[in-house]
Specification:
The protein has a 6-stranded mixed β-sheet with strand order 1-10-9-4-5-6, with helices on both faces. Strands 2-3 form a two-stranded antiparallel ribbon. A two-stranded antiparallel sheet has the order 7-8. It has 207 residues and is of the alpha+beta class. The radius of gyration is 21 Å and the shape is globular. The chain folds into 2 domains: 31 residues; 172 residues, Glutaredoxin (3-Layer(aba) Sandwich).
């Protein structure tokens, strides 16, 4: 009977430990601010398939905004997103999302060629285009990814079409914006930012 009681005590302690871990995980997630709720959208991916918020709900996702003819920050950001793809297990349910701020040029086919340049796994990394109104609604209003056209007289190069955010944002499984990370610029060290993004993703995944 003594050993049975001892075994029951160990089992109870183990259950308490597991419950405490679960509670700790919930507390950590609550510590991350809820910045905004992402509204539904209808866009088109690199395979010319309609993509809506429902396709990303129940997934943690990381998003950014670029345009494919960009010769400045966009290649850097896409290389950084590629490094996140490599850091996540191939079986991870986490999604990566890249939006364009230049839908007049960035058709699904153009976006797909762009993604191929960065060895995108299209089952995990989606490239979205669509109408300017729909893109602005998701990017600017929901994800806080700003983009402003550059007037022709103000362009410093033939590909200087837009000034846009150089941030990555993290969205949780309930389509809530939970993290904003500056990825480049003066004083920004990607080697330090990347682990922060991955840690946030892990927290929101419940791990």
């Amino acid at each position: 009977m003594l050993w049975v009681g001892f075994g029951l005590l160990l089992g109870l302690l183990g259950l308490v430990y597991l419950l405490s871990l679960a509670e700790y995980g919930r507390a950590r997630q609550k510590a991350l601010p809820v910045i905004d709720q992402i509204a539904d959208f209808t866009l088109t991916n690199q395979d010319n398939q309609v993509t809506t918020l429902a396709d990303l709900t129940n997934h943690v996702w990381v998003a950014d905004i670029i345009f494919t003819r960009c010769a400045g920050s966009c290649p850097i950001m896409s290389t950084q997103m590629k490094s996140l793809q490599a850091a996540l297990p191939s079986t991870s349910p986490v999604k990566l999302v890249t939006l364009t701020c230049n839908p007049e040029y960035d058709s699904p086919a153009v976006m797909k060629r762009y993604g191929e340049r960065y060895d995108a796994d299209f089952s995990r990394w989606t490239f979205l285009t669509g109408t300017a109104k729909e893109l602005a609604g998701l990017a600017t209003t929901g994800l806080k990814l700003g983009a402003t056209p550059v007037a022709p007289q103000d362009r410093t190069s033939p590909t200087d079409f837009f000034i846009h955010s150089t941030i990555f944002v993290v969205v949780d499984k309930q389509a809530r914006l939970r993290g904003i990370f500056q990825t480049e610029g003066q004083g920004v060290d990607w080697a330090k930012v990347k682990p922060q993004i991955l840690a946030t993703v892990k927290e929101l995944e419940g791990g």
